[in-house]
Amino acid sequence: MFHYTKVLAKLNWILPLSGQDDVKRKLSYRINKAQQDLLNQFLSGHGVQLSEETLDKLYQFADLVVDTKEYGNLISAKDSEKFLSRHIADSLVPFVFMGKSLDPSTSPNGSAQDDKLRQARTGVGNDKIRWADMGAGAGCPVFPLAIAMPNVQFYAVEPRHMRVNFMQMVKEKLHLDNLTVVGKRFETSGLTDLDFISCRALSTFENDWERAQAGLKQGGTFVTLKSFNNIAHLENDPKVHIQKYELPEEEQVYALVTRGNNE
Fold first, then answer.
1. pLDDT tens digit string along 23-61?
2. Cβ(85)–Cβ(35) under 8 Å?
3. Could you tell me which residues come within 8 angstroms of residue 221 by beta carbon, excluding any fewer than 6 positions away?
4. Of the candidates 82, 97, 117, 214, which lies 20 to 30 Å from 9 by C-alpha distance?
5. What is the CATH number of domain 4-260?
6. What is the side-by-side strand order in the sheet with 130-134?
7. Pick from 145, 138, 257, 143: nearest CA to 204
8. Interatomic CA distance for residues 103 and 134, integer angstroms
């Protein structure tokens, strides 16, 4: 049974509701310093430097997921030990690469959508970007992305009630006004005309793309994070862009895969 009152009590102990100043203060994190260092090394290695406030929110999110794992089986004990270096780092990969390393000759969308990618990453631009994450689970990658890109409107789409309630509580604790939790399957969520739709290790690329396509606007982009071994067969597909990457202390190669909705 999921004990909502116990979870809420724990969340209040970690993040008392007393305004935005709580976000800026340094906490005694359950996530150890070595994990923080690995995440920062991953980011700096790709030329990314986040503000102290952004890092603080990422650490708080990690703490909340790890601290409440026993109530909803949010993550395994093994994953909790490397939550920052594995799961937060992986969640931030679209922020790290999109609009930065994609060039017009290899982008699946051309220069117009490259501008959207850069706007999502930098927050510079006039258009309101809308981004939905399918099967958001306990909040990866959508919470780290919403923390890193506060000018983008995110939707965390997840049908399982325990995870929906958990994400809603965390959203309120972290004051994430740019994120909406949607307690439905993506197909019944009513979300359409989206600039970006993402998922992380949900199903096969082909199945995920089929689910996402109807919700994308013309020229929108599907974004997914996979093990490279699972998408290697797409390397010669001209409609797909693949960015390989490695995560701290992980042996396998991963891939950020994007496809534009240009048909």
1. 443 444 566 889 999 999 999 999 999 999 999 999 999
2. yes
3. 108, 109, 113, 116, 117, 195, 196, 197, 258, 259, 260, 261
4. 82
5. 3.40.50.150
6. 179-182, 153-157, 130-134, 194-200, 216-227, 254-260, 240-245
7. 257
8. 26
Q: Are 123 and 129 in contact (CB under 8 A)?
A: no
Backbone angles phi, psi at 243, to 5 degrees: -115, 110
- β-pairing, 130-134 vs 153-157, is parallel
Q: What count of residues does the chain have?
A: 263
Q: Is 229 exposed, middle or buried (0-12, 13-18, 19+ CB in 10 A)?
A: exposed
Measured distance CA(190)–CA(225) in Å, rounded: 24
- β-bridge mates for residue 182, sequence order: 157
Q: What is the pLDDT of residues 94-122, one digit of tens each?
A: 999 986 644 444 444 445 666 777 777 77
Domains of the chain by residue range: 4-260
For 255, the enclosing helix (H) or strand (E) is strand 254-260
Q: What angle do CA 229, 230, 234 make, to 5 degrees?
A: 95
Q: Is 241 left (phi over 0), alpha (psi -120 to 50) or beta?
A: beta
Report the number of secondary-structure helices (H) and strands (E) in the chain.
13, 7
pLDDT band at 128 (very low <50, low <70, confident <90, very high): confident
Q: Name the pTM for this structure.
A: 0.85
